[in-house]
Each structure stands twice: as C-alpha cells, then as structure tokens.
Amino acid sequence: MEKIDYLQGTDKTISDVKSKGAFLVVKSEVDNRINTMTIGWASLGFMWGKPIMTVMVRKSRFTYQLIEKASSFTVSIPEDNLEEALSFCGTKSGRDFDKFKKCNLTTILSKSVTCPIINIPGIHYECKIVYKNKMNPDFLCKEYKEKNYANNDFHTFYFGEIVACYKNN
After folding, report:
1. The CATH number of 2-168 is which of 3.60.21.10, 3.30.240.20, 2.60.34.10, 2.30.110.10?
2. What percent of the chain stands above pLDDT 90?
3. Is residue 46 classed exposed, middle or buried when 0-12, 13-18 and 19+ CB atoms within 10 A define those classes?
4. SS3 98
5. Which of 67, 108, 130, 153 is found 20 to 30 A from 74 (Cα to Cα)?
6. Rounded-to-integer distance, Cα 46 and Cα 95, Å
C-alpha cells in the first residue's frame, strides 16, 4: 500500500466518484454489522485545520442505521471496472442482501479506524466522523429541493477527518 496525500489526484478522484461511483463502507459499533453503498456525491476539503471528506446518506437507507452507530467510515474508489458491483450496491439495500457476498467483495482491516475497507485496487480514504448534520430543507434552494428531494428524503451530512489515505494495488 502506497500512502498518498488526500489531495493527490483530487480531480481524478472527484471525476471517478461522479462518473462511476465509489464504495462507502460503514460498521456499526453496537452490533458490528457492516454495509456498503455506492456514493456519487462527496466533497474533499480542509476544515478545522484537518483534511475532511464529507459524504451524504439519506435517512431511508440501511447504511444510515449503521453510520448513526459508527465513529468512522471508509471510501474506496476502485481502480478496476467494478461497474456491476457499484450498480448493485447503489440500487439494492443491505436490509435485503449481503452486498459483499452478492458482489464477491471482501473487506480487510483498515489502518487507522474501526471500519474496514473493501479489498480492491484503488484509492482508499479512512475517515473518523467529527461532525454530522441533518439537512434543513428550509435552507435549500427550491431548484435543488425539487430536483433531488421530491419525496422529502433529505440527507444527513457526515464530515470525516481523513486519518489515512492510500493506494492499494
């Protein structure tokens, strides 16, 4: 594993998340249940003097139940074409399927957080949750609300301090 700066290749990272998706992995610290879901939205930045990745999870998602009982999350951006697995993990619920088994995905221990990473070649972010905030629809512009939240299933934002970032071959 090659340690990399979290901003290294940011353009490609954001482009890959936007076009192909990435795997968000969470692990409940109450019952140790693990789930992954595909994300197509994320933000990388620098806040509170730390590198931060922000991910969004809707309350209706199974992942939400787990991340609410977690202190960390990981994001894995595949180097290889895992379009079928990303599609499955983005359209099926962990309530109904073991996504890891169905997609032949395995996890390995992360370096710095309790949540594992998916064992695939790619860039991996390990994030310690430092802040979360439920969206307040009163502050969202009408255009975004109508386009993205017609059923009022608003996101919660999870701000994760990036405590490790590396490329796994």
Report:
1. 2.30.110.10
2. 77
3. exposed
4. coil
5. 153
6. 34
